[in-house]
Amino acid sequence: MDMFDQLFSLLGASIRMATPLIFAAMAGIYSERSGIVDIGLEGKMLFGAFAAAVVSFETGNPFFGLLGGIAICILLSLMHGFASVKMRGDQVISGLAVNFLASGLTVTLGHAWYSQGGLTPALTNAQRFTGITLPGAEWLGENIPVIGPLYEQVISGHNILVYVAFGVVALTYWVLFNTRFGLRLRATGEEPNAVDSAGISVAWVRYRAVIIAGVLCGFAGTYLSIAQNAAFQREMTSGRGYIALAAVIFGKWHPRGALAACLLFGFLQALETRVQNVEIPMIGELPSQLFSAIPYIITVVLLAGFIGKAIAPKAVGVPYVKER
Amino acid sequence: MTAPAIELKSINKRFGPVWANRDIDLKVMPGTVHGIVGENGAGKSTLMSILYGFYTADTGQILVNGQHINIQNSQQAIAAGIGMVHQHFMLVEPFTVLENVMLGMEGQGLLARAQSKARKALNEIASRYGLDIDPDAIVGDLPVGLQQRVEILKALYRGAKILILDEPTSVLTPQETGQLFNILESLRSQGVTVLLITHKLREIMAITNHVSVMRAGKMVAHRDTDRTNPEELAELMVGRKVLLKVDKRPACPGENRMTVNKVGYVDDRGVKRLKDISFSLRSGEILGVAGVTGNGQSELMKILTGALQPSTGSVSLETGAGVHVLKVGEWPDAGQMRDYGMGHVPEDRLQQGVVKSFDASENAILGYHNKEEYGSPLLKPENIVNATLELMEAYDVRPQLPSLKTANFSGGNQQKLVLAREMMKEPDILIIGQPTRGVDIGAIEFIHRNLIAARDKGAAVLLVSVELDEILSLADRIIVMNDGAITGEVVASETNETELGVLMTSTADADAPVFEDKGHSGKYEKKEEAAA
Q: Which stretch of DSSP H or E encloses residue B482?
């Protein structure tokens, strides 16, 4: 059973690692499906994490923390949206600006307010989202072989945001493919001319998409600072926004594919922490940088040959200018 | 008397100093097909954009079915029953036909029910107007003709009773054009009013009831189609007499300029694109290359101009620059070809002829930019601008602004710029592809005259065109290509479209398998039977 225990704890960790990626990837899907490249996922997540930690620490309520994270991410999203939609700027540059802004401002504000080198004060459990034991988990874990521990260690015991993330994937799928908004969103990312000539405002669709992306980034950031951890640390997103973007591409801008990619990348991250300092016969100790690089390598390799070309929404990154 | 479906009263629209539309009056009777013709830049598109709400007129009135209406955006145009099929389709390619049709008209937030409603309505419209289509087909997979049908369905689904079609046939094959006209007939018989914008007079004569002619932003004439003719319309469009037939003296060919010897080309995928092409080209003649698009003409042109290496064969050039024998393996590039005395007007000017985002002056020296006269090693902008002005003057490129971005010139003027660039150097050999593709009538006449003039000055001209009319009226000799081989050579003055048509579908004698030959002759017999 020891092997199962190890496997289950690895899988449970994978899910925890995958959660912020899932939120961010869904944010990326909304944004990119509407035609706005969102390289600023990273920065929004980071600022969201900072805001959540600060608000939660000051108010003592993690839900206020969540709201704070969401609010700041919507603000950053609107900035990016304004630059991309209204000013027709370069979306990559605007996204980068968000990243730099978040990277600098979080540390500066954190230092100014708490004087802990950019960290926010450690949160108590009451100020965090902590694990929930699902009904019957302990009993099942003790009495039913394999399935029981699977339920207890992999499915149960996560904080509420983990479950919300999976709900968001289902919701995203439903919204994209079963609602009028989804139809228009997808059309806007492909052929804004068609949307405009059908009498729909391209700008309004895109603004709504980036706002949704902001909300989801708020969840991702909040998860990092006040659920997975107990404080904000500088650069604590450590590239997750980019990995989420890779997952979006890897998943071909489809929620299902992106979810699979996020779980895979989450698994690799969980594995990374477990094989550090482990000697592998013949090869020796694997550098942890290799594991950090793996999501990108996998994305490139798989896209290059195995799962076919990922075709981006046609109008992604192109500011819409009314013809004539 | 019924009110006109559309009535425009003294519409004016200015863009800065340019009058795009000036005092336009137009009456379109319901249930008719009304043609609007004019050269590129005559203001047809602006007028239709005003009608469809892309622009608002500076002054003037619009009446739909006798009612004054104010059209500020496309929404209001749609509400007034006006639908538009754009030249460039407004379709979401990965979506199904149904999704494209319902976009913006879903009616409710959830798609499932909206879709079943839309499907019913779509099927009803499709059967009423005879527009068969699979609602679940992915639009991007459909051929262009069917995509256009989706656009028409979109407009009808939105309740359009007045349909504007902007240059609808520019992207269609002749068969698809025939189908489109059948659709328009059917729409007309159902009481739909159609506004057809085009510069192809043949189409005006074939389908419209009435025709209005625009020139330089003004409406210059209204005619009943059965009381006019293409010559009159062409004259009205251009503002002077236009020769639809080219006037030329018989050729007096001089010495040999180019001898093509058994040139073959196998592409990357191993397909034989060219099979043993041999011909010669003499100074003072135009050799036409006829054939259906994609039968090796493009490859031949690319090889002869240095853009592609042949797999077999050789070419010898005898020009003012000396005698050069080109062999496989040491094929010159396009720049060297120019040095050998060759001018090249490519088939696709936007892909090979010009860089769209460059100034006119930059494109005017493209390919010749290393010439001393433009400055070396640094370019001298002044010289370039002056040279460009000279080209523009000689070839009547409008507007005469060397600093204007090339994309902002009309197709005809872009083409004239390319022709000027290549022909003003008076090369001994001119390789010219589709010289009048997407060019309006006035410019076509001009281009044709210049080609004849170049011939008479002693140029050896190779003319590749898919327009049989053009080949027949310009060329002195014609070679016909099919499936990468030359299937025949004829003298232009002694042939006709029928003979060329037969050659365009027959196989070359040399390597044709016997059974295939039989199959072909069998087909012709059948055709004759059917005719009898």
A: strand B477-482
Nearest to B191 by CA among B163, B213, B223, B228: B163
* Alpha carbon separation from B378 to A153, B10, B371 (Å, rounded): 72, 53, 11
User: B103, exposed or middle or buried, with CB in 10 Å at 0-12, 13-18, 19+?
Assistant: buried
Question: What is the tens place of the pLDDT at every residue in B456-506?
Answer: 999 999 999 877 778 888 999 999 998 899 999 999 888 887 788 788 777
Contact A190 B109 (CB under 8 A): no
DSSP-derived 3-state class of residue B51 = helix
* pTM value surpassing 0.80: no
* Sheet of strand B485-491, all strands in order from the earlier edge strand to the far edge: B342-345, B429-433, B460-464, B285-290, B477-482, B485-491
Closest CA to B170 of B366, B438, B367: B438
Q: Which residues of A touch B86 (CB under 8 A)?
A: 197
Closest to A197 (Cα-Cα) out of B480, B486, B87: B87
Residue tagged 């049709």 (tokens): B101
A148/B207 Cα distance (integer angstroms):
76
State phi, psi for B69 to the nearest 5 degrees.
-135, 160
Alpha-carbon distance B462 to A23, whole Å?
A: 62
H or E, element range at A179: none
A91 lies in which domain range? 2-306
Element at B275 (helix H, strand E) = strand B272-282
- For chain B, give every residue range classified as CATH 3.40.50.300: 6-238, 256-341+427-521
CATH of residue A68: 1.10.3470
User: Crossing angle, helix B144-157 and helix B111-129, to 10 degrees?
Assistant: 110
| Binary contact (B111, A183; C-beta < 8 A) | yes
The count of structural domains within chain A is: 1
Contact between B92 and A186 using a beta-carbon 8 Å cutoff: yes
Q: Which residue has the tokens 């040959």?
A: A305
Give A53's contacts (C-beta < 8 A, 6+ positions apart). A65, A120, A123, A225, A226, A231, A232
Q: Do the Cβ atoms of B93 and A200 come within 8 Å? A: no
Closest of B415, B419, B388, B387 to residue B402, by C-alpha: B388
CATH of domain B6-238: 3.40.50.300
- pLDDT(A299) > 80: no
Helices assigned H by DSSP within B239-380: 297-304, 334-339, 360-364
Residue B75 C-alpha, separation from nearest chain A C-alpha, in angstroms? 6
Spell out the alpha helix ranges (H) of B278-370. Answer: 297-304, 334-339, 360-364
Nearest to B90 among A182, A183, A194 (CB): A194
Cα–Cα distance between B193 and B506 in angstroms, integer?
A: 43
Q: Mean pLDDT, chain B, as a whole number?
A: 87
Superfamily designation of domain B256-341+427-521: P-loop containing nucleotide triphosphate hydrolases (3.40.50.300)
Three-state DSSP class for A298? helix
CA distance B449 to B244: 11
Question: What stretches of A186-316 adopt beta strand conformation (E)?
Answer: 279-280, 284-285
ipTM for the predicted complex comes to 0.90
How distant is the Cα of A41 from the closest Cα of chain B, in angstroms?
A: 26
